[in-house]
Structure formats: C-alpha cells, structure tokens
User: Fold this.
Amino acid sequence: MIGNKSEMDKIIEGTFSEYGYPEDFLAEYDQLECLSGRSGRETFLCKKKGSEELVVAKCFSGAFYDNAVEEPVVREYDVPGIPHFIKSYRNDSYVCVIREYIPGKPLSEVVKERDLTQDEILEICGKLGDILIRLHSQEPQIVHRDIKPENVILKEDGSVFLIDLDIARTVKPEGDSDTYFFGTKGYAPPEQYGFSQTDERADIYSFGVLLRFLITGSIRENKNIKIYRPIEKIITRCTAFSPEKRYPNMKAVKRDLSAINPRSIMLRKIGIGAAVLCVCAAISFGSIRLYQYLTYSPFGEGSVPGYVSDDEMVRQAVAYMEDTYGTDLFQDPDDFATVGFLRTILVELYGFDPDYVWGMNDDMPRESEEFFLPWGFEDSRFLDRDIAVYAAVKLHDPAIVADWSELRDDNGYYPGVRVAEAFAKKNGIMEGVNKPRDITKGETALILYNAELTFSGKDQG
Assistant:
C-alpha cells in the first residue's frame, strides 16, 4: 500500500516500475491519479498511451488476488451496468485489471450536494436493482458483496453503474461459509462475517441498508424517523438478520419497488389502457376468437359439459393473468397469499394508487376514499376468500360493495363483503375456490380471472 503523499507523487510522476507493477501494463498506460489505496489493492485512473482513452486500473497484490477474490469475477464477466473488462496484466507480484472508466459522480457525493426526492431515490434503486438482477443471473451466480453509495455511479444522462468488484465472488453450492470476510461495516450482512456462505441475499441486505441511507440519511434504523410505510416494509425485509427472512431474490425486491414508483405506476396504467383499447377495437371489428378466449368459462352457458378440476382452473387462471399482465406474481401458485400480496396486485396489475391501497383504517370497518380495504389488516395476514372476493368485485365496480340496500338483516359481518359474496356466487366468481380461509396465490388468480370474465361479459351486454 502507498504509505504517504511523497511516495504517491512518485507513482503519479511515472516511477511505477520501482513498485513492481507488470511491465507491459506500465508500457501501455500512463497513471494520472491514485483513486484509492488499501492493503493489497490500489486503484488508479490511467490513460492509454497515445490516446485520450481513460480507464481504471485495479492493481492487486498476488496474495490478495489469489486469496480474497476466490473466483476471477473481476475479469471474466461482462454485465450491463458494470464497467466492462478491457484487459489484465500479471507478474509474480501483482495482477492489474483494466476496466472501463465511468464518468459520473458516486452516489455518496450526490447526496452531499443535494437532497434526493423520494421519486429520484426509487428510480436510482430500481436501476441498481436491474444491475443486481443481471449479476445474480450469471452462471455461477455473482455476489457483489460491497454495495454502498461510494460504489454506485450516477452519470449525467441518469444511467446508473455499479463499480468495484474487488471482493465479488461466485456462489459455490457446496460452500458453508466465505473464506474471507470483506465488505463495508454497516452495509455488510451478518453472514458476511463468516456465519455462512454469502449468496444474492447478502446483496439484498446491503441494498436495503443503502435504501434506508438514501431515505433517512443514516444506515441505522431510527424509530423516530417516519418512513413511507411501503418503503419501510421493503427495507425491513431486505435487512432481516436471517437470510431466510429476506426477499428470496432481487426480482422480488424490484417488483415491490416498482409497485410504489409513481413513474412505473403511470406506465402500467398507460399500458393497461392501451391493452383495453386494443381488445375493444378487436372485438368491435369482429374478432370473435379473441372474444371467446377472454370470456370463456367452463361454467358458462353454452359450454360443453365436462369435468374440470380445480387445479386445471387454477392453472388456466394463472396462465391468463401472466399472459395478460406480463407478471410473475403468480409464479408460485401453491404459496399462501397474504393481504400484502393482494395489495401489490392492486397496484402493480390494476394501477391503483399505492397510498389508497396501503391506506390503513384503524377505526371500525367502513368504506372510505382514503383506503381500498375497509379494515386495517397487516400485510402479513393470510388472505381469506371473502377478502379476495371483496377486492375483485370492488376493483371493477366500487358501487356494488357500497350498495347495502338489498341486505335484510345484520349478521355482524361487514356488509360490503356480504354484498360482494352474494354478487360473486350469482356470477361464478368463486367457482373453483372451495375453501374460505388461507387461499393460495393460484386461487387468488382464479378469483381475479373469474371476476374479469364476469365484468367483461357484463360490459359487453
């Protein structure tokens, strides 16, 4: 490591050879600036001789490179959003890895210069999430292990890059723990201290800490700082002590981030609106096949009588929801659904405002313009069939659940649900969902699918 300023000056002036760096590296590049110096690794801004091309050179001591970087991920993978690999040089003492130079500012500097809005934070984190999804999708899987504001670069055009793969590693299925601990205190997850092998959930932990820092200005949880509840829930799940309690993958994190990103919500609304217009136009021009596909039900009039199992109906409903909305929310149809899952559906698939969907009623159940559900249920509550039916009816026609005039008595249950259930039974919305409690994600898809068929037929007269 460079010990003091005078030694650094020698290096910047071009006397690199006395420090033992590879001669072919020194012959091709001029060193302009030492960007960082840490034990066993130095980072330099360099310029290719005879050109204006700027690059970043990371020079590792042989011992550090061989022991810390368990797999040479710093040179073997080229992932969008990561500075691409150019070349590497090696001798008995050092390995110098040359990567693309990314002009821009570290996120750590940006937040010092100005306060980022919540929308800006969500957009930046969404782009960072895309990079991590690509990293984690490699074979074998790559874990960055040092996600922090200093390693996130923002370019002037708004694009985001993740730099510094010094301690990145590939996941070994047979491994019990990481060979060495590296990372940044406060951002590194517990397992990175040697409790177990790190996988993509380690990056998810660091991502959650980064999100908390951007929102609150601190990496530590502070109950005195009020955070928008959907964001707080994402942070809490990302930073759970046990990896098993975190998000299973970055796609799931990105999905929940998108659900509270106003720009994404607007785009989904536009997309859904365009899809509806296309369907209406197709039907208007006599696309009978499309109409039959959208309105087919094995229980409808004119259907050929035949036995259709509940599982077959669920598969049909899941396929319809995935194809229609381009979603992977139902990819685990046998998992239990929760109230939070239902709320995510309302925002992500149907374009409802997150504040309205996550608005919590702490009083007696009632209809309100402030919240979609009349109850203040926690997101972790398992989903009952009647709650799903109420939501499925209300999202298509709120007036139905608000009209209690047909009810002749009061059995103590919320009137809006009783009205929705009566409507659902009459129109086949509950067909195939036979249990009243703890329904699955697939059964939720079936209720929504049946509701769409019902209201599509109703709209068509």
Residues 321 and 445 are 7 Å apart (CA to CA). The chain is about 45% helix and 10% strand. The two ends are 78 Å apart (CA to CA).
